[in-house]
């Protein structure tokens, strides 16, 4: 179990993490979703004590992470697979973790075998590893202490499709045996496949959280039409809120039946009409992604060039 | 790469366990291992061994017969060793940031001061062990060199000499460690180290040559001069005072600042 209570981290004027509260429960995979720079990694670093929260608190298994006597035995952490000494052999990195945690030597081979790194691969230096191999090595280090909680930041990055499938199986199995999994991603579809619960973060704030089934449940209808403004007005006249999707689409907060009747009555041609089915979440996520500073800067650049 | 089907461990992941804390000895021995298990760590140690053998050889080849004494050999070996050893201490600290391995290290041991303490003890241990090794190589060189030259070996270092040389190497190691925690970047700390070792003594030399006021002040502000005295022989009480005063300014205070920074800094 991981519990965050109003965790905030400020860097001067900039608030990277803004009153973030959520709980990752045992037996479930909690997906931590957000665009790049939304505050996912900072939040995860705060959980494991590498970054100090400005205010708020985070606990793992009921205690602050720094109060865990031998954290590796309770929490498996992989924050950045590339953050390893490039001149050290893969096997040596796992051995260091094994020695620090005070585990039997045999665990090193067990866990390397588990993540699918061959003896030849694990004797190579990390400098020569692909990102996918680094992820496997990081997973090995996270799993060696046989923890009951896993905290993984973008673990699927760099894995090939077979590797991603393997990772899903591993995490599913871990959660099914009662473990708590918190994993982050900036890809909705990647996390949709594996997560039971979702926490969506944007600009340091939580914008949605709950069971995946609830968040992805049908929330209105999507309609494509040649006259979106006219249809929006017609829906509005019937007290139905709607928002624009793309150039010719609307997301209406009602069922497809009423949208169809409204369009017919208003004489608006309909190109496509279907229940939203999680489109709400996807739209929200796209909106978040579009609002990131990165894109905002890109929009400003042409002006700067002219001036 | 092979895909191995994940097998569930024999028990449920929610099994209650009562983990005990990580003893400092285990942290220290792991940090010692980490100093030597990388390519840079290996070559740093290897270069000390090679440099020791090379300097011993050079002394045998080129030194005058009357200079073939134990002191000459030991001094010749001490120069490369005292220069290179602190690099191990520097990299031990800075690699956690520059190579970013700290993300794992400080997640496994969240009390950073314990990791840093382990690194400190391991650094000092290396200096304590390496110095007698230099003495031993020097002794072998002395016996071999004098035999080649056909003269009797001269053993002109007392136990007190050996102890102060040992202390000089430990202090050198601590200087490296201090720069590591203060800067926390491998390249910047190494540049800082060479400035500290070469530029500062040269500046002090020039200043003392040109300015009378500095010449009188120098023993009280020049740490390099104070530690250099350790290599020459037993220190007078005034020299010990010089060592304490300069060590406080050039080692203890910056070390305290560095330790504070390490504990507070964000690990990214």
Q: What is the C-alpha radius of gyration of chain B, as a whole number of Å?
A: 22 Å
Distance between the termini of chain B: 29 Å
Instruction: Report the major sheet of chain B.
Output: none
Low-confidence region ranges of chain A: 295-307
* Helix percent band of chain B: over 70%
General form of chain B:
globular
Helix content of chain A: 25-40%
Structural class of chain B: mainly alpha
Q: Residue-averaged pLDDT of chain B, rounded?
A: 88
Sequence of secondary-structure elements of chain A: EEEHEEHHHHEHEHEEHEHEEHEHH
What characteristic shape of chain A results from the CA principal axes? elongated
Distance between the termini of chain A: 53 Å
Oligomer category: heterodimer
Counting DSSP E segments of at least 2 residues, the number of strands of chain B comes to 0
Largest interface: A-B, 60 and 46 residues
Using the CA coordinates, give the radius of gyration of chain A. 23 Å
């Amino acid at each position: 179990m991981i519990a965050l209570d109003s965790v905030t981290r400020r860097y001067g004027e900039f608030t990277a993490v803004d009153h973030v509260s959520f709980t990752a429960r045992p037996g479930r995979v909690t997906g931590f979703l957000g665009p790049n720079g939304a505050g996912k990694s900072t939040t995860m670093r705060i959980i494991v004590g590498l970054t100090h929260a400005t205010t708020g608190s985070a606990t793992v298994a009921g205690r602050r992470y720094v109060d865990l006597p031998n954290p590796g035995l309770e929490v498996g952490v992989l924050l950045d697979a590339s953050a390893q000494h490039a001149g050290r052999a893969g096997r040596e990195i796992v051995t260091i973790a094994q020695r620090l945690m005070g585990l039997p030597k045999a665990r090193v081979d067990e866990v390397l075998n588990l993540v699918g790194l061959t003896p030849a691969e694990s004797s190579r230096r990390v400098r020569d590893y692909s990102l996918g191999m680094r992820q496997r090595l990081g997973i090995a280090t996270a799993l060696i202490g046989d923890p009951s909680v896993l905290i993984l930041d973008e673990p699927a990055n760099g894995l090939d499709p077979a590797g991603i499938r393997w990772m899903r199986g591993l995490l599913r199995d871990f959660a099914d045996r009662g473990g708590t999994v918190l994993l982050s991603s900036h890809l909705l579809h990647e996390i949709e496949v594996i997560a039971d619960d979702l926490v969506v973060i944007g600009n340091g704030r939580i914008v949605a959280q709950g069971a995946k089934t609830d968040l992805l449940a049908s929330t209105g209808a999507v309609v494509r039409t040649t006259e979106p403004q006219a249809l929006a007005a017609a829906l509005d006249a019937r007290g139905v809120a709607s928002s624009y999707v793309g150039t010719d689409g609307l997301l209406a907060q009602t069922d497809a039946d009423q949208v169809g009747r409204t369009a017919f009555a208003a004489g608006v041609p309909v190109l496509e009409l279907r229940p939203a089915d999680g489109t709400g979440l996807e739209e929200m996520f796209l909106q978040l992604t579009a609002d990131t500073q990165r894109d905002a800067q890109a929009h400003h650049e042409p002006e700067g060039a002219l001036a | 790469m092979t895909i191995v089907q994940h097998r569930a461990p024999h028990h449920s992941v929610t099994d209650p366990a009562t983990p005990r804390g990580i003893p400092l000895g285990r942290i220290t021995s792991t940090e010692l291992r980490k100093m030597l298990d990388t390519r840079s760590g290996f070559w740093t140690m290897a270069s000390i061994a090679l440099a020791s053998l090379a300097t011993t050889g050079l002394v045998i080849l080129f030194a005058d017969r009357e200079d073939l004494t134990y002191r000459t050999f030991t001094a010749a070996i001490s120069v490369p060793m005292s220069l290179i050893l602190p690099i191990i201490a520097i990299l031990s600290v800075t690699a956690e940031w520059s190579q970013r391995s700290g993300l794992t290290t400080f997640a496994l041991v969240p009390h950073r001061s314990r990791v840093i303490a382990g690194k400190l003890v391991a650094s000092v241990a290396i200096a304590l062990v390496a110095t007698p090794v230099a003495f031993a190589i020097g002794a072998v060189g002395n016996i071999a060199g004098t035999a080649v030259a056909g003269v009797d070996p001269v053993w002109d270092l007392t136990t007190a000499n050996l102890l102060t040389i040992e202390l000089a190497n430990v202090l050198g190691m601590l200087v490296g460690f201090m720069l590591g925690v203060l800067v926390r970047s491998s390249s910047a700390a190494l540049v800082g180290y060479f400035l500290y070792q070469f530029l500062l003594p040269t500046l002090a030399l020039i200043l003392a040559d040109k300015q009378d006021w500095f010449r009188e002040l120098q023993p009280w502000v020049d740490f390099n001069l104070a530690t250099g005295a350790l290599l020459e022989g037993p220190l007078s009480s005034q020299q010990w005072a010089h060592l304490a005063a300069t060590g406080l300014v050039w080692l203890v205070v910056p070390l305290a600042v560095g330790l504070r920074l390490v504990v507070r800094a964000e690990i990214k």
